[in-house]
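Let us begin with a simple case.
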Amino acid sequence: MKLKKVFAITLSACLSASMVAGCSTGSSSSASGGAKVIKIGAFEPTTGENGGGGLQELLGMRYANKTHPTVKIGGEEYKVELVEVDNKSDKTEAVNAAQKLVSEKVSVVLGSYGSGVSIAAGQIFADAKIPAIGASCTNPQVTQGNDFYFRVCFLDPFQGTVMANYANDHGAKTAAVITQLGDDYSSGLGSFFKTAFSGLGGNIVSEEQFQTNQTDFKAILTNIKAQNPDIIFAPSSITTAPLIIKQARELGITATIAAGDTWENSTIIENAGTSAEGVVLSTFFDEAEPANEEAASFISGFKAYLKENKQDEIIPAVSALGYDSYLCAIKAIETAGSADGSAIRDALKGVSIDGVTGSISFDENGDAKKDMAFIKTIENGKFKFLTTTTVK
């Protein structure tokens, strides 16, 4: 989006000094016609390896902005302007995208899909005193030591344990783990699954890693086949997932293939075809099980919105989380009664909402207090709800 003329003089200085000076403090302004405006940043990948998932998350934020286009600050109504940047699924580009949001003087940031880019940008937001609310970035490091980062999803230690419990409950005694080298989400979730599964008495018979942009997995899958595991846990991107799934089945591997929340994406089914049948995953939301009235309203309205935008009408969990992150942002802005980032950060600590994915409030680390995950499988070319799971 174009920078407003009123900021033209100061922005050139802020671009280079915003991390150390006060230029990045969130502010409000008047749009043409006199309407007051507050900016919320959408920090998401819309290109690169995670572009598909990032767009789904962004669609939830855009829809939230459509249904909640204004916020009241001190009794006055402000228009919420969603400022979108593409972090390109890349840690270096994430820094550039974060700096752009700082220069745009956003008051709060939403995102990102992908823990690695969220971690990379975290210190920039903290230095600029702009609170960020992650939607689906599940790695614990996103919020650790960062008083300005919050999130509305559950964490990978929980998700890894949930999937280990599921594997154990369904008779799996041996497991293979496949993770992406250098990817915080993949390596973190794989590690948490391994620890939890071993703790339940399971045996990890193979641990394999692959490089970013790798497309041939037959060598590591051949190693896994020789170990004949009951389950393969392979948390990875939606780009990599169908390749792993198809090549595993082509090699005659019959083990259950499982992963985390990133695999709840229809493109995996489209690209893996019948090989995707029986895949199991954990996720944050199921449209067949609305948590409350807000969820029921979201489901019907968002389906219509997806249709208008020529998108698949199956609601991804990350879209619901994107919507909830926006709700938390406007609730915090209203509670703070200010566009100032530090004031909004302080307000977020006490925010409590009934969101689409359930009740949301934050603990001392800025993490959502959540204790339930949805387990789904792929059956007849569709995601099918199996059960909800909690970890005590």
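The second case is a distinct protein. As before, the sequence precedes its structure tokens.
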Amino acid sequence: MKPSLVLKMGQQLTMTPQLQQAIRLLQLSTLDLQQEIQEALESNPMLERQEEGEDFDNADPLADGDELPNPGSQEIALQESSIPTVENLDDGGEWNERIPNELPVDTAWEDVYQTSASSLPSNDDEEWDFTSRTAPGESLQTHLLWQLNLAPMSNTDRLIAETLIDCINDQGYLEESLEEVLAAFDPELDIELDEIETVLRRLQHFEPAGVAARDLRECLLLQLRQLPNSTPWLVEAQRLVGDHLDLLGSRDYALLMRRLKLKEDELRQVVELIQSLNPRPGSQIEASEPEYIVPDVIVRKHNDRWLVELNQESVPRLRVNPQYAGFVRRADTSTDNTFMRNQLQEARWFIKSLQSRNETLMKVATQIVEHQRGFLEYGDEAMKPLVLHDIAEAVGMHESTISRVTTQKFMHTPRGIYELKYFFSSHVSTAEGGECSSTAIRAIIKKLVAAENAKKPLSDSKIAGLLEAQGIQVARRTVAKYRESMGIAPSSERKRLM
């Protein structure tokens, strides 16, 4: 074949840097977005934040044009559609020459505009405590080593104790056998198995109670032994845990009463004493830092109408700094002037991207509240079936956009804080030809289990029959799937004494 030049025409989907930035901001969570805004404020001198109680000077042309409205002040009733908008920059002012609204496609920010590295966090705040905000939580091993340092012990025993502590998992159990621990030591140390077992018994007296146990039986017995001798039913509880723990696990209360020679009421008190113990003692020592949820949307009822508003504290109020913007000179091609014009354009696009995110979030949240009025009024049992396609059609957007805006976004309602994804669920047909949400079915199953007879808990088949009596056609395996998703044990494990 001879080489030749061929001209072809075709269509290809491309995204401008402005669109890429808008999509990236849309899918960020509240905490990630706050970090992104902080980095933008540190790297771009054209952006500034409005502090609480501060008023901007609206006499400047930029004050009205590039200010990002306070998200929390925009309330939307379900019957209204007042979406906040951003006005364009005032055409007046000697610095404001025409800047293109979009970059050429398939280009990056760095190819056209200059960027500057973000600076380090400011240390001007005297109340900012680095240690209290960055120190990790105490781990179980750290807690045990702290107690070990207070215990008088020989160097050899201390070495054994440190090795045993390293073998304790986060739940407080010893993962390795004593033989495996012994094999890990140097033979020249001449350590015997009895020494390891003696040190282990000393560790088992440390806090939390039940730590360093090798199995559940030993863990419960260690906690029972630390209770006062005057504790009611202590002897019977030790006997039950030591000899008949398997019967308690299988809920064979009739055989337990015969073995322990106890009446039903007496056995119930013994079981309650055992249930007061902690099968995972290591969980009492929290090593991870708590994670806080910042809601993006707040829903409240006012005058019998549900109102939707953006959280005032989630996103700060931004605008272009009019003083720096006034330094930009028209027809000036110097390096400093070019840098300021580039920063000005980036600031304008960043503000518009934030505003677009707020508008999309408000539209989606409003439609969700409109669809799920029943949930807000009556709870989970009134949840309606809802999929991404329904919201996408209502707001005129693609399903992928709805998926981005509902991921890691939270709504504060009078019933609690929920992720926006929580309001989406599949449906099950009813006898009348309607549809019932899977979330509502889970709520009904949970209600049935809570009201069941403790001696004769409902099986999955029985629950399916009760749902069918209410007109909800659900198979037994579907009931089992919903029950397991809620962490509810099967009927054989829910059986208990009255």
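Residues 140-243+275-284 form one domain. The chain has a mean pLDDT of 79.
Keep these points in mind for the review questions at the end of the chapter.
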